Amino acid sequence: MKIKNIHAYEILASGGYPTIECRVELNDGSVGVASVPYGVSAGIHEAIVLLDHDASRWDGHGMSQAISNINDKIATALVGQDASAQRQIDQIMINLDGTPNKAELGGNAILAVSVAVARASAESAGIELYQYLIDTFQTGFNPKELPRPMTVVIEGGKHADHTTDLQEYCLTATRDSTVSENVRMIMETYHQLASVLKENNFSVNVGNEGAFAPSGIPSNEAPLVYMLEAIKRAGYVAGQDISISLDAAASEFYELGTYNLKLENRSLTAGELISYYETWLKKYPIVTIEDMLAEDDWDNWSKLKIIAYGHHTDLIGDDLTVTNVERLQKAIDLQAISAILIKLNQVGTISETIDCCLLAKKHGLMTVTSHRGGGETNDTTMIDVAVAVGSRYIKVGPTRGERVSKYNRLMAIERALGLVPPRYN
Ligand code: PGA
Ligand code: ZN
Question: Residue 83: in which H helix or E strand, if any?
Answer without folding.
Answer: none
